[in-house]
Design a protein that fits this description.
With 253 residues, this protein is an alpha/beta fold. Helices cover 45% and strands 16% of the residues. Strand 7, helix 10 and strand 8 form a beta-alpha-beta unit. The longest helix is centred in the middle third of the chain and has 16 residues. Bound molecules: 2-phosphoglycolic acid.
Length: 253
Amino acid sequence: MREFLIAGNWKMNGSSAANVELVAGIVAGVPTGSGFSLLVCPPFPYLASVVEQTKGSPVKVGAQTVSEHDKGAFTGEVAPGMLSDVGCDYVIVGHSERRALYGETSEQVAAKFQAAQVAGITPILCVGETLEEREAGTTESVIDEQLGAVMDAAGVGAFAAAVIAYEPVWAIGTGMTATPEQAQDVHRHIRAQLAAQDGSIAANVQILYGGSMKGENAAGLLAQPDIDGGLIGGASLKADDFLAIAQAAAGIQ
Ligand code: PGA
């Protein structure tokens, strides 16, 4: 049985003071019950302090990107081993903002995915189409290319220790959310792509939805059979908003 993962992607937001307040609110309000876990992904400078603040709580910590290299002359980059060293459990790879704004290719994303796993970090692989691609009817082929690059490089077995996030680019930060049916269609497709190679990996991998998920729409999305949680941007920056989504997950279990 797959559990829900409710993950907050803080993006480039926060400060020492604001984070302390946000994390305290989240830790204090974790819903009771089981069948879900919570994750926050702060910017790099705050990872260690958020790890410290969440110690002893069920809230896990992840990073938002990572280098594909393990060390050396890569100014400005952060190695996967550094993330595990400071206590991260997860890292987001291939977020559409990384792909669009920083030119990350699917091959690079695959390398980051593999490097994270070598360091014992669970990658959260983001895939998703733009509005133009959806309107052109190419959603599935876009997803297949993004997912396929990682399956080719790492093998389907690597998804035993990975999470996938379907994030339609047109729904990110726009207030437009995929309907539960639109999201479910793509989630089902992603799972089928994995199942074509390994049924048990496909049945167990968590596939999160991301794109303007909030308290009001979370229950409908999370009720879909192939949606196993959320990767949440805007609504992860206020404890109450984030917890409302966690409550929806707790209520479905
Ligand atoms: P959003 O961001 O919830 O603000 O749409 C989601 C994401 O980009 O991970």
